[in-house]
Amino acid sequence: IFRAKTPTSLPTFLVIGPSGSGKTSLVTLFEKGAPSPTHLSQSPLSVRVSLPSTTKAASSKYRSENDPTLKLEKPLLLVDTPGHGKLRHFGLEHLNATPNLKGIIYVVDAASIPSSSTGSSSESGLADAAEYLHDILLVLQKRYTTAKSSKGPKDVPVLIAANKLDLFTALPAPLLKTSLEKEISRVRETRAKGLLTAGSGDADADDRGWLGEGGESKFEFRQMEEVNVPVQVVGGNVLGSEGPDVDKWWDWIGSKL
Ligand code: GTP
Ligand code: MG
């Protein structure tokens, strides 16, 4: 009997983030070379793509230019997940159930985040983007802290893709980074207060835990390195009058292969 190689064994990246941030646009661009018109996603979708020949995989770093294996196609899977608040269980469930998970691409609409911290975060996309990201990072942290082996689980690197930088209202990646860190600190506080009022009878709540370092210090993505979750924020755009700018995201993917 002929059996196709199971596609699940391919290196896999989860594409996750708030609704409307551009996940499906990004995945169709990576798949077909041009983004397709999208609808709100209602279920996860795995798509097989190939690393562009111009992007080097980390595993090929020491190969000579003449090495014929360099010319081989480097396939990988992208799993597009729905960002709608009621459908986020799909994304969160995939975090622990994806074989050969190489990383997470968290797509944020950088134009939905205000540039001043004085504006109310709940009116913008910031609160939503930070809350979802907080929950994902907490799952990854828990995966590390509950791991059986003393070495802990493999790295799960996270790329925060600051998308829609073609729009002039978009927040540049370094500012998006500090805005998210600040807002995640706030989410952490709110969750901790929720735990107190929920009382000790709520085992589920006890289980949730505190993201990053304890104490008074504010949350920083850097703190995630201690649980094998390196986080990087990189800007780009899928659409735009001057065409897409996604090379740095491909470079990040290549560096994890
Ligand atoms: P859900 O499926 O609901 O989770 O949303 P999604 O993250 O898949 O968003 P989607 O790819 O459907 O894009 C939402 C909208 O953003 C679409 O109208 C896209 O055309 C638009 N969009 C995506 N990327 C960009 C970009 O880089 N720049 C601009 N200007 N618009 C973008
Ligand atoms: Mg979608």
Automatic annotation (TrEMBL):
UniProt entry keywords in alphabetical sequence: Endoplasmic reticulum, GTP-binding, Hydrolase, Membrane, Nucleotide-binding, Receptor, Transmembrane, Transmembrane helix
The protein, known as: Signal recognition particle receptor subunit beta
Pfam families for this protein: SRPRB
Presence of keyword Nuclease: no
One GO MF term attached to the UniProt entry: hydrolase activity
Annotated Gene3D superfamilies: P-loop containing nucleotide triphosphate hydrolases
Source organism (scientific name): Aulographum hederae CBS 113979
Cellular component per GO, a single term: endoplasmic reticulum membrane
Membrane topology qualifier: Single-pass membrane protein
Protein location: Endoplasmic reticulum membrane
Similarity field: Belongs to the SRP receptor beta subunit family.
InterPro entries registered for this protein in UniProt: P-loop_NTPase, SRP_receptor_beta_su
